[in-house]
Design brief:
The chain starts with a strand and ends with a helix. The radius of gyration is 20 Å and the shape is elongated. It is built from 10 helices and 8 strands. The chain is α/β, with parallel strands linked by helices and about 240 residues long.
Length: about 240
């Protein structure tokens, strides 16, 4: 019987090959976005105060997601662009540590921690920029939804993220764990309404062309049918 390993990014495929899995067994099927569902989401009423532009992230508050770097970058951004608010959506073990760092940086009026939100995808519609400063990442469903929501992306060049975000076209990619570069990327997008709109529209188009739920389901069905055909061929040979 033909056996396949399905993975959601080329990055993970490389890791599996390094771990000894034969390349021909691995099939990359990207996650897909239900565009009708995304479009049906409405931004909830959420008061960020007199915030201006909103930079948001949606991720578990754990070390690999790079929130510490985001806060250091936020401090740098706010010294240059004051009319901006940072929103961290998600719960996790670093909540108290991150809040303490916000107080140390003196930016507590410019940062909101929402905790876990079951409506995080809808909450993205209150953002102007989606930021994901991960230190490692397989493939980010948050970035997929953000791009489908026409948000420009500022993220780190790790794991499967470069497979989603085209640097300079749908967003800005920066090295991981580099607050200066992350701040520079954020300022570049914050300071240009035209660039935000251009990247947001390009991101939506990329989702429509490559990362739809329909495409994912079709590719999954095609793989299963191929495996079934292989089994049937083997059974006929035995007969």
């Amino acid at each position: 019987m033909q056996e396949s390993v399905v993975t959601v990014s080329v990055s993970i495929r490389r890791t599996l090959i390094e771990g000894g899995v034969r390349p021909e067994r691995i099939k990359v099927i990207y996650e897909g976005v239900d565009l009708d569902w995304v479009d049906s989401q409405h931004a909830p009423a959420f008061d960020y105060g007199n915030s201006g532009l909103v930079v948001g992230t949606v991720a578990h508050l754990s070390s690999e997601k790079g929130h510490q770097t985001l806060l250091e970058a936020a401090s740098r951004v706010l010294s240059r662009v004051t009319d901006v608010h940072f929103v961290l959506v998600g719960g996790g073990p670093l909540m108290s540590t991150l809040k303490a760092r916000v107080r140390e940086l003196g930016i507590d009026e410019k940062v909101t921690f929402t905790g876990f939100r079951s409506d995080s995808e809808a909450l993205m519609k209150t953002f102007d920029i989606f930021c994901l400063p991960s230190l490692s990442e397989g493939l980010s469903s948050g970035i997929l939804v953000a791009m489908a929501s026409k948000l420009p992306i500022v993220a780190t060049r790790v794991g499967g993220i470069p497979e989603l975000v085209i640097d300079g076209e749908t967003g800005v990619l920066v090295p991981p764990d580099d607050a200066d570069q992350l701040a520079a990327g954020l300022c570049k997008v914050l300071e240009s309404p035209q660039l935000r709109k251009k990247m947001g529209c390009a991101g939506r188009q990329r989702i429509e062309e490559t990362f739809t739920l329909e495409r994912k389901l079709n590719e999954t069905e095609k793989l299963y049918l191929s495996m079934l055909a292989s089994v049937l061929d083997q059974s006929q040979d035995c007969g």
